[in-house]
Amino acid sequence: MRKEYDFSKSRKSPYAAKLKKQITLRLDEEAIEYFKSISQDVGIPYQSLINLYLRECAASNRKLNLQWK
Question: pTM for the whole thing?
């Protein structure tokens, strides 16, 4: 290893804008269990799986069909 490093030509990470933000989200048990069961099958943590699904919904402008009774 070098004793000193030159960071004068360094630049900001292009991935810094894609950092995740921690939030609190209330989900019902059925939804959590659904994603946990899928996560075991595919080997992806369930929180990452939920994030991937929500990102896909946002990218395709998917809208919910809500009807109040």
Answer: 0.67
